[in-house]
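Q: Structure tokens for this one, please.
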Amino acid sequence: MSKETIKIPDIGSDSADVIEISVAVGDEVAAEDSLVVLESDKASMEVPCPKAGKITAILVKEGQSISEGDDLVEIEVAGEDDAAESEETKSKDTKSEDAEAEESAASDQKAESNQDESPPAAAEKAQEEGGSQTVSVPDIGTDDEVDVIEVCVSEGDEISEGDSLVVLESDKASMEIPSPYSGTVESVALKEGSKTKTGDQVLVMRVAGAAAPEPEKKPERKPEASAESSESSPPAKADKPEQSAQDKPTLGKQASKAPGGEVYAGPAVRKLAREFSIDLKAVSGSGPKGRVLKEDLQDYVKSLVENKAPAGATGGAGIPAVPEVDFAQFGEVVAEPASKLHKLTGANMHRSWLNVPHVTQWDDADITELEAFRKGLKAEAEQKGVKMTPMPFLLKACAAALKANPKFNASLADNGETIVYKQYVHIGIAVDTPAGLVVPVVRDVDKKSLWELAEETAELAAKAKDRKLKPQEMQGGCFTISSLGNIGGQGFTPIVNTPEVGILGVSKLTVKPVWNGQEFVPREMLPLSLSYDHRAINGADAGRFFSTLNEVLGDIRRLLL
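A: Here is the predicted structure, written as tokens:
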């Protein structure tokens, strides 16, 4: 065995912050296992382990700023295999360096360079010539397709070089694609939720050509013709021609206001804001030129929790804040910082509680026959490798009740002026994780079998606990189920997960005596709590929803009707 020091690889920027350490001393890791998660102004990314072995030391700390080549971890690996791999890597590096030297020499002999060989030069040439230019997805570090999670511009927008065009997300990182030119967007080829890969078209834009070109004009001279000419020849390029188009000038432009008045924020910040429905326009950015940072989101949430008006926010209920108390004066205490997920979940729940007039109705569902049927599936479930819990039955029953009572499968829009009725049935399931509460969404519940739902819910719950859920897997819900299972007591008041209008709370199954007309008989009764937004739903609607739900849970043959 031999010890090696793993260093930070090329991360595409001068520095990045360590936002999560994924391993601990003593952990056995395989090749490609994640070591740390880094975040720069452009992207968040996982750094994989290049070799299998045992972690003997961690050389960075959470929150630390690192750069390419910094020491990351020490790992104990098998000597022979690693030596062979190291020699092979050195050989490849040497060949790569030789190839690059040959390429550079060949490039120097050419009078005109190819656009693919010198993207910054090609971009400058296109900027000078003007006309319509097609912007494609640059090299994003993988040949696989990635998700388009945000389109930052639209047709007709005036944009500057370096402004964000789209935000992409792969399994390991999210990244913003900046504009290589200044000009006007003519058409956008990508849509939010679609997939793309290196080389695909992003958009077509009309590039503003340089006004009155002068062959002898030096690039460092400030343009005097017009504002359009100023955008075409930014002073930053003249002052620092050696900097790449992907380097700091891009970051500076990303920090300014985006087309349409949107604020700028990094991918990780946008991801958190989307997951917890925080309007970035309400958050005051403290980064360069107003860029919103993670700390700004945290301060915003803290202000909400303390009932203080955050900077940039408007309105407020005027509720006095709870005074700070020094609990240590009463005895020994242990203070631990709340996780980001806990704080953001708290802010979401607080917002929903203050904005939604909640009403909760309770009922007991007789699931005696359902439980007998579910337990009878145990052998078949083992053969399929799936555990059949009550959750798939609850999902199917709620889907039937939502289709029979469309007021619950709706959302309020336009400040309550419009009711949007959804023609799909996506149901969220609240999952308790060590990091906090998350709500993955099961899509098209009404179209899936019980076996499919059992498999999918188990997979989503596992991903939630491993913190591997994607943003799109927690969006688009029509209704939510919060099941406390065997720890649930007799009932609780679940808070509506706005913009949904209803949520079902499920408590602990109990055996109760039920009168059948002649005698009391033991029945398995499931306590249910239905909370709803009283602006969209009244008590009669909730009563009908409960009626349908109890009928289906009491006799699952009704799912066939």
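A few notes: Residues 163 and 178 are 5 Å apart (CA to CA). The chain has a mean pLDDT of 79.
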